[in-house]
Amino acid sequence: MDYQYPILYDWSTNETIDVIQFYTSVEKAYEKGIDREELMGAYKQFKTIVPSIAEEKKLCGELEELSGYSAYRVMQKAKNASPGDKIKM
Fold first, then answer.
1. Apex CA 12: angle with CA 6 and CA 15, to 5°?
2. Residues 59, 72, 15, 47: is their CA dihedral positive or negative?
3. Which of 20, 42, 64, 79 could pair covalently with 25 via S-S, beta carbons 3.0-4.6 A apart?
């Protein structure tokens, strides 16, 4: 990883950690696969910090520009998967 995650500087340390945990979950989905429940839990926590759809699109768009990993595609696959499935892009 030779890029920085998109974060907002008005987030608390714990909020920043939770957002980064979601970003790393997206990376895991691409690199080796991730359990659907783990991913959905990270996304749920992310949404408590970033409730705005517009802000979510902006941050996830920045993540995709920087890393090439699409949080949108990962979450679409996860939402259509069954509980217990592994999400692998």
1. 60
2. positive
3. 42
Alpha-carbon gap, residue 78 to 28, rounded angstroms: 13
Written as six digits, the tokens of 75 are 């979450």
Nearest in space to 20 (alpha carbons), one of 51, 63, 76, 57: 63
What is the chain's Cα-based Rg? 12
The tens digit of pLDDT for each residue in 42-81 reads 999 999 999 999 999 999 999 999 999 999 999 999 999 9
3-state secondary structure string across 20-70: HHHHHHHHHHHHCCEEHHHHHHHHHHHHHHCCCHHHHHHHHHHHHHHHCCC
Q: Roughly how many angstroms between the first and final C-alpha of the chain, as a whole number?
A: 18
